[in-house]
Structures are given as structure tokens and as C-alpha cells.
From TrEMBL:
Residues 98-152 have a biased composition (Acidic residues). The keyword Repeat does not apply. Residues 508-767 form the Peptidase M16 middle/third domain. It holds the Pfam family Peptidase_M16_C. Residues 33-72, 92-165 are annotated as: Disordered. Belongs to the peptidase M16 family. It comes from Clarias magur (Asian catfish). This is Nardilysin-like. Residues 318-502 form the Peptidase M16 C-terminal domain. InterPro entries: Metalloenz_LuxS/M16 (IPR011249), Pept_M16_N (IPR011765), Pept_M16_Zn_BS (IPR001431), Peptidase_M16 (IPR050626), Peptidase_M16_C (IPR007863), Peptidase_M16_M (IPR032632). It comes from the Eukaryota. One of its GO terms (molecular function) is metal ion binding. GO terms for biological process: proteolysis. Keywords: Hydrolase, Metal-binding, Metalloprotease, Protease, Zinc.
């Protein structure tokens, strides 16, 4: 798997099968559009006329590259105080007045209902959901499967509701790296405190109450070098919400009486994060940095750092908080993205009227780019044994590289992650699975502030090990180094780069519309990192193949510069050390001389390793399928035989060249006995395992599949571009027809399912 900003979804565990049931959904008209284009040419691709005099007020910037499937208009402006803003208009001159009236009627109804609420109830809202770094989702895959139907229905409602929402996000180019040495977590704490009312709107938590009353939400997060605030609300209330929200950055009260309460809120987030293995690994890794490098700071903050120790050292936290706000919450560090169904002229007027009052400190932005090589220390290039919270084995192989943000047009780490995280024939994971040493492998850079900032970039490979793999973890690492050495010998490959480029371009070209609040959050951060024309593309597209840039990074991935982190519950008795903030138990040792000597030599490569073959699943034909079927609200039965039934629904709304197929293979044998149910579960998981390697190329080419064990049979779901979807479906059916159960694979999955069943059955709601 590839760890990038766009996460690849993992397939859930599966369950059986005999009578077939299909549901197919396909578009029916052709559509002409190629690649990434400007706003003007994208409109032309959609058959829209050039803007006339009546449309000038919604005229966007032609040089901001957007997807041909994106109907929104964009305009970039800079205010006199230095704030930079991107205006995003959902407005269309073809929208009927009735639509707006419907919106207003709904909103007025909401207002009538909410007017009856007590003010005291509104003020009871706390700040817990507004800020801070969230904990990782560590739920079991079975839970994801159980909640799939509910999630699908929820997503439909959410998408419908979000179409009427307006949203804004503001990114400040300052984060936890700027925390004072004597007040760890101050940036995160300030992110909480600005919500405590303003001079213009003094009511504490009044903004939350306003959003709740008008169907909105807000959130905020603090990273190493950036802090982001975002909210959404009903369109009718957007201007008022903008004005209320902007006061956080113009003149927040940050009332003294709220300090202790918000310290407790920050401490609560810290306590919730402590059981997360990913956060624990980050804090341990950060502790390996050079003394006084900001990577070693405790960015979360808690009651100890923000209350107990300051009181002991006679530090006035309130004064320091206001000083930090005045110094760092400056307009010329800020980027703003706003999205609404208003014209661009209207949005520009609102933004200029409201946000021009944000003060500009006139001081240079905090700079850390001179603090390079933070992990060039004796503590690095070691083996760290760690006791995890979760009962599993894993190996994390990490290199600390020079900062790579400036190479966003080449994306060398994305290219390397694609190859190292590959799951097809000839890959690292393919060989590890054959040896029954690993269950999963993720490689790359998450592009969070921890993984990538102005001082360094991380390249990590995380491998989930089997019990046997844990016993042979040095051999696992050795295979990784062999594969990397093969890549170094072969050098950067234009064919592979262009395949990745084509896949990302296809996804961008036919991208689905994102919820406004998520979209503006991404865009305002992109504005801190990329050139104006790349605000919408810089985090996704690969623009240019540069073998020198890729090769320079690839050649740094050597064993003598690596750090190994081995997690296992079996380390409990071996780890006397404890990380200061999260209490992670660990021990450190030198990499075994046998292996360090081997890796320092010109070691041989495994002959099973090779580059991926040409990807046959990449779509190149995007014409829409003609159909004379009538428009229907629901799928219609078009075939009914003794072997099965087919239902079909024509897509006349989105008109994209994609199909969705659900195939239900039904068998009465599954429910005959508990033994049958369990054997069926094992069978479907083994089928998924056998399919995963040959189907991996389809997965990365934007074709999706799921094999799920339902109550009465096996459900096969495939979706993606029409052009190559049949290849994927045939591949799955062929593996089902030729199903076999090798004893070692059978044993591996029976052991895995025992653990899964145990984790399910210890949950009270499952037993109930």
C-alpha cells in the first residue's frame, strides 16, 4: 500500500456462495474533456458558453488549473493587510430561483425550530470538537464491514446536505515549532482559546452555538508549522458566520477565566491520544532529534506543561498567550479559502469587508529551514524495541531525508512509495507473504507536519508482521534493503513514472465533489505550499519526470542511515525505558553486527524481485456507453432466469464513464451449521488473499473491489472506469472458480480469524 495524502482504502475481511444477482449502473452519453485545464477551457469542455456581460461578476481566474469535471469558479485575491484568499463559487447563472427559495424555506424552518431553544443549552457546548490533533481510528475491520450499510446511507444524506452548505478555512503559517521552550503546547492551547468570544461577539462559545443553530460545524488543528481553522454553515447565514469567525483573528477576548477550563480541554485531548500507537511512535521518534530542535518539542500540551509547571515557575500563561497571538496570528502568514453558492464578486466583497481588519505584525514568519539534519545524532540508526498498546507485531523502517516540499512538481517520495508499497508480483510484500512473514506493508510520507516540514522529510516503511515474521524481523528488513538496492541499480524509470502520472490525472479529471468544509481545509493549506496555478493540483498531480531529483533521494535510502522500530507485546520484559510524555515502554540496542556488516557490503539481491509489469488496468477510453434504457429512480430488473437476475440503472445525472456492479452469489449451505459459517469466513478471506496480488494493479488504477461474506452468500462489488472494469471482474471470478487452500495459508488465516473473533466477542454491543 502507498502512504500518501490520498489514502488507499483497505479491503475488509470477507464471508459465501450459488445463485447470481447483479446490480449495474452505467452512464449513457459521451463527454469530451482531456487532462487538467484552466477554468475557461474546462467550461468549454462542458459545453458552457463564454461568460457574457451578466456573468462577469462570476468570472474566475483562468490561470488556476482545475479539473474539467469541476463546475466551480475560482478567484485569487490579496488584501491590503497581506492575507491571501481563494474565492470558490458554486453559483451558476442557470440555477433557478425556486432552488434558492427552497433553501431559504428550509433554513427558515430550522430557524423557527431553533428559536425555541434555551440560550443556556447553547452555551453548554464545549470546545472538545473544535481543536487539536485527533486520535487514530483503531477500530477493527469487522466493525467497518458491519457499519457499511449505515455509512452508505449516511453518506448519501451528508452529500445532499453538504451541497447546500457554505464553508471557509483559514491556515496560519505558524504551529507547534514556535512553542516557547518553557511552555510546550502553547500553539495548540491558543487554537482553543481564540474560540472563547471576541470583542464584537463576547459570548463564550457563542460561535459554536450559532453554528449549531444554523446547521453548521467547526474544527481546528495545530500542526508543526501550520494551524488550520474551518467551519461550514447554511448558505443563508454564511456572511454572518464569516464575520463572527473572523473576530477570532481580529480581536479575540481570550478571557482569563477560561484559561483553566481550556487547559483541561487540551489535557483531555492529550489523554485520549495516549493509547494511540501512531502518536506514541511519533513522540518516541521526535525524542531522537538533536537537542533544542523543534522536532523534540511536546506539541500536544497538557495540564502539567500549561498549568502545573508554569504556576511553579511563576509564568503568567495568560500574558504569554496574548503575546503569542499578537506575534504569530498575523494576516501576512494567513491563507483563506471560502466556498459558497454566491458570485465571486459577492464573495470578494465579503472577504475584503470582513478580513481586512486582521492585524499584520510586520514581523517575518518564524523560520526553521536552517535546522537541517535533525536526526544526525548518535541516537539514530539503532534498533528500538517498543511495547505497543495493540496486540500485534510491526516493523517500522525510517529514513530522515532533506526537506522535499520544494519538489512537489516531481514528487520523488510518491514515486518511491508507489514501488516500495507495491503489492503485485515481484514486490517486497509479495515475497513476504509467500514466506508468511507479513500481512501488510505501507510505505511513503503522510505529508503531515511530523512527516514533512521545512527541516526534513521522512520516508517510512511500516510492515505488519506475523508471529513468524516477528521472529525473523532482521530477514524482513534485509529483503526491504535488497529491493531498494535493486531500485538504485535500475535508476528512476520513466515508464513507471508516466503510469503513476496517468492514474493520478485520471482521478483528478473525474474527481467527485468533496464536502465544502473538507475542500476548503485542503485548499487553504495548499496555498501555503504551492504556486497559485497549482493550488488545486499541487498535492495530487505529478507534473514532470526528473530522474536527477528522484535519484538523489533514492540514493539516500541506505541501511547505514536507517532507524528500526520493532513493536511487539513480547517486549514487555525487555523494555525498562519510558518516553517522557506518552509513557511508551522501549529499549534501544545496536543493530546486530552480523546484519550491519552484511548491509555494509555489496550484498546479493533476491532473484524474485523485479519492477512491476505494465499496468493493463489503466483506463484510456472515457466515452460514455450509449443506452436506450429509460430513466428510473431505482434499478429495474432486465433479466430473470433460473441461474439469476440482473437489475440495471442508467446514470443520467453525473455522466461519468464509470460503472458499479454488485454480484451476490447465494448458497443455502452457509447457515447449515456454525462450522459452515466459520469455514465460509476462512474461504472468503483466503480468496481475498489470493486475489490481492494480481488485482493490486487494478486497485491503484482507480478500480475498486470488495469481497464480503454476507449472511446468505458471497458479495462481489466492483466499481471504476468502464474501460477496464470487466478485466477486474473476470479476474475475481477466475480465482473463485479455481479456488485452492494451501495448508500454510489456511493455518495463517485460521489463526488470524481466532484473534478477530476474540476482539469482536469482547465487545458488549456485539454480544448483545
Amino acid at each position: 500500500n502507498i502512504l500518501t495524502r490520498t489514502c488507499w482504502s483497505r479491503l475488509p475481511l470477507a464471508r459465501p456462495g450459488q445463485c447470481a444477482r447483479f446490480c449495474v449502473k452505467m452512464p449513457n452519453k459521451s463527454k469530451q474533456c482531456v487532462g487538467s485545464v484552466s477554468a475557461q477551457s474546462a467550461a468549454a469542455d462542458r459545453g458552457e458558453p463564454n461568460p457574457g456581460p451578466g456573468q462577469q461578476e462570476n468570472r474566475g481566474d483562468d490561470d488556476i488549473i482545475k479539473s474539467p469535471s469541476d463546475p466551480k469558479q475560482y478567484r485569487y485575491i490579496e488584501l491590503n493587510n497581506g492575507l491571501r484568499a481563494l474565492l470558490i463559487s458554486d453559483f451558476s447563472s442557470s440555477e433557478g430561483k425556486s432552488d434558492d427559495e427552497d433553501d431559504d424555506d428550509e433554513e427558515d424552518d430550522d430557524d423557527d425550530d431553533d428559536d425555541d431553544e434555551e440560550e443556556e443549552d447553547e452555551e453548554d457546548d464545549d470546545e472538545d470538537d473544535d481543536s487539536g490533533e485527533g486520535t487514530e481510528d483503531e477500530s477493527e475491520e469487522e466493525d467497518e464491514q458491519d457499519g457499511e450499510d449505515e455509512e452508505r446511507e449516511g453518506n448519501k444524506k451528508k452529500k445532499k446536505d453538504s451541497e447546500k452548505q457554505s464553508a471557509a478555512a483559514l491556515c496560519i503559517g505558524v504551529g507547534s515549532f514556535s512553542d516557547p521552550e518553557d511552555l510546550p503546547g502553547l500553539a495548540h492551547f491558543l487554537e482553543h482559546m481564540v474560540f472563547m468570544g471576541s470583542e464584537k461577539y463576547p459570548r463564550e462559545n457563542g460561535f459554536d452555538a450559532f453554528l449549531k443553530k444554523h446547521g453548521g460545524n467547526d474544527n481546528a488543528s495545530t500542526d508543526c508549522e501550520r494551524t488550520v481553522f474551518q467551519f461550514d454553515v447554511q448558505r443563508k447565514r454564511f456572511r454572518e458566520a464569516l464575520d463572527r469567525w473572523a473576530q477570532f483573528f481580529i480581536c479575540p477576548l481570550m478571557i482569563r477565566d477560561a484559561v483553566d477550563r481550556e487547559v483541561e480541554a487540551v489535557d483531555s485531548e492529550y489523554q485520549l491520544a495516549k493509547p494511540s500507537d501512531s502518536h506514541r511512535k511519533e513522540m518516541l521518534f521526535g525524542s531522537l532529534a538533536k537537542p533544542h530542535h523543534p522536532m523534540g518539542k511536546f506539541c500536544w500540551g497538557n495540564a502539567q506543561t500549561l498549568k502545573t509547571e508554569p504556576k511553579k515557575n511563576k509564568i503568567n500563561v495568560y500574558k504569554r498567550l496574548r503575546k503569542f497571538w499578537k506575534r504569530h496570528y498575523s494576516a501576512h502568514y494567513m491563507t483563506l479559502a471560502v466556498q459558497s453558492r454566491e458570485t465571486l464578486d459577492t464573495l470578494e466583497q465579503w472577504v475584503r469587508e470582513i478580513f481586512s481588519s486582521i492585524p499584520n505584525s510586520g514581523l517575518p514568519r518564524p523560520e526553521f529551514s536552517h535546522l537541517l539534519e535533525p536526526f544526525n545524532t548518535p541516537a539514530f540508526n539503532k534498533l528500538y524495541r517498543v511495547v505497543p498498546v495493540r496486540k500485534e507485531h510491526s516493523l517500522t523502517i525510517t529514513w530522515a531525508l532533506p526537506p522535499q516540499e520544494k519538489h512537489y512538481r516531481v514528487k520523488p517520495l510518491h514515486y518511491l512509495a508507489w514501488l516500495i508499497g507495491h503489492e503485485g508480483a515481484g514486490s517486497i510484500l509479495s515475497l513476504l507473504r509467500k514466506k508468511c512473514w507479513a500481512l501488510a506493508l505501507y510505505g511513503g510520507n503522510s505529508e503531515t507536519g511530523f512527516d514533512q516540514n521545512s527541516t526534513y522529510s521522512i520516508f517510512s516503511i511500516n510492515i505488519t508482521l506475523t508471529d513468524h515474521g516477528f521472529q525473523n524481523f532482521y530477514q524482513v528488513a534485509d529483503l526491504v534493503f535488497q529491493y531498494v538496492k535493486m531500485l538504485q541499480r535500475l535508476g528512476p524509470q520513466r515508464r513507471i513514472y508516466e503510469e503513476i502520472q496517468k492514474i493520478e490525472a485520471n482521478e483528478f479529471r473525474f474527481q467527485e465533489q468533496t464536502d465544502p468544509i473538507e475542500y476548503v481545509e485542503d485548499v487553504c493549506e495548499n496555498m501555503q505550499l504551492f504556486a497559485k496555478e497549482d493550488f488545486l493540483t499541487g498535492d495530487q498531480l505529478l507534473f514532470e519526470f526528473n530522474p536527477e531529483v528522484i535519484g538523489s533521494v533514492l540514493n539516500l535510502l541506505t541501511p547505514d542511515k536507517v532507524n528500526l522500530l520493532l513493536l511487539s507485546p513480547e517486549h514487555q520484559s525487555l523494555c525498562p525505558l519510558q518516553e517522557k510524555w506518552f509513557g511508551t515502554q522501549y529499549c534501544v540496542e545496536e543493530i546486530t553486527k552480523q546484519w550491519s556488516d552484511r548491509w555494509a557490503s555489496d550484498f546479493d539481491l533476491n532473484s524474485d524481485f523485479h519492477l512491476p509489469a505494465e499496468n493493463q488496468f489503466i483506463a484510456t477510453d472515457f466515452t460514455l456507453k450509449p443506452s436506450d434504457a429509460e430513466d428510473t429512480e431505482f434499478p429495474v430488473k432486465v433479466a430473470d432466469t433460473e441461474r439469476g437476475c440482473v437489475w440495471y440503472k442508467k446514470d443520467n445525472k453525473f455522466k461519468i464513464p464509470k460503472a458499479y456492479v454488485w454480484f451476490h452469489l447465494i448458497s443455502p449451505l452457509i447457515q447449515k451449521s456454525p462450522k459452515n459459517l466459520v469455514l465460509f469466513d476462512v474461504m472468503v478471506n483466503m480468496l481475498l488473499y489470493s486475489v490481492s496480488e494480481p488485482a493490486y494493479e487494478a486497485d491503484v488504477a482507480q478500480l475498486e473491489y470488495k469481497l464480503t461474506a454476507e449472511e446468505h452468500g458471497l458479495v462481489i462489488k466492483v466499481k471504476g472506469f468502464n474501460h477496464k472494469l470487466r478485466l477486474l471482474f473476470n479476474l475475481i471470478v477466475d480465482h473463485l472458480a479455481d479456488f485452492s487452500a494451501p495448508p500454510d495459508v489456511f493455518s495463517m488465516f485460521t489463526e488470524q480469524l481466532k484473534k478477530s473473533y476474540f476482539n469482536i466477542l469482547i465487545k458488549p454491543e456485539k454480544l448483545a
